[in-house]
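TL;DR need structure tokens for one chain.
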Amino acid sequence: MRILFLTPRFPYPPLKGDTLRTYHQIRTLARRHSVTLLSLSDAPVSMADLQHMEAICERVEIVPLPRPHAILNLGLGLLSPLPLQVSYYRSPLYKQKLNELLTACNFDVVHATLIRMLPYVWRLRRPPVVVDLIDSLTLNLKDRRGKIRGPLRLAYELEYRRVRRYEQEVVRRFPNLVVSSPADKEALGGGSVTVIPNGVDVDKFAFVGQEERDPAGVIFTGNMGYHPNEEAVVWFAREVWPLVSATRPDARFQVVGTDPTERVRLLQDGATSIEVLGKVPDVASCLGRAAVSVAPMHTGSGIQNKVLEAMSTGTPVVATSTANRGVGGTPGRDLLLADSAPDFAAAVVCLLNDSGLREKLAEGGRALVEGRFRWEKHAEQLAEVYKTAIRRRTRPGAGRPAKLNVWQMTDVTGRGGAEKALVDLALRLDPSRYNITVCATRTAGNYQPMLDEAEVRTIVLARGSRRQSYK
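>> reply
TL;DR here they are.
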């Protein structure tokens, strides 16, 4: 198959959850299929990183998204019904490059990563589109909005409502959706959504025996610029770690991950048993030295890579129910579960004191990863989703009925409620089923750029004359 990947961030190096998943999807699929990558990037991409992806892909195209432009997108996004996370990634240049690729190349399928890429394929008819949402942002924001206080609460509430409405539209519009966990599928309403969990590079995250580890070492790994990770580490350091230290004063806690925030860096001030390492050359080696890995997540969605990577290295895991939601590990066999601070501390201390239990969980966790969470298995499942999407589009006798012509008329002069309802309808009608024309008796006003971007045909009639303006 010839696959076109659309990504909001350059997938290498894979330092964040979405880039990790995208990178390994491309890496494993490219062994048997031809992959073209079209990526936005709001930061410069080094020549070494570009060359790494060029060695894997048939073709790599990068469209810069300057930060000032992205910030302007956010400002304009306040006036749009779209989630701000979608508005941020708006780029006319990216859309132009996508159209050029689709015209020049005969792709079998388009793979769009996250809801951020959906405006670019919303009206795409061919080739078929497979959307990897990775996780449900509705579920993510639902967990987080109840914990936010102050002025940010209103912003979270507004974004939550936009995301919930948008994801509902996405489920109705795109029949080929992929997420990383059953909880995310349920949050999206189930239906035809396919669950394909994240994977682990089991060779990179190799199993390490207990005899090679620091018996008092506790570790957290993850992108520290991600709010649920920051929240989890702060909670663990403030609420759980004092209880652990009271029983095991020799215990040491390391925080490993790129972009630690000021709140996280301050945790090590005055606490000699806490060390914030930030970005390290090799996360696997850090996991291989620790006796226990913790995943104290209370918010977030999707599947926790930190849990899978720790299990792959044989590092016993203590996790909350939220962190285990996508992994589905069996307590007592694959990991230990705890949600309150006293229970979490007791589980960590129990593992530090019991080498036999550590060895049991190490073996159970590694077996779980090898059986269910290898990237090669992930690629096989994803390829089947592609084939299903292609069959749906091309199977004999499955031609669609003739499209209906829809003519919408209004006196569009500004951003009134009636005008907004009309434009929302025009933007959301399925272009594979309807030919849509908007006719304004005076002017399309502020809505014209939105209609143009969505490629909705508009006709403006100058009232009182026979002059017409066609778009």
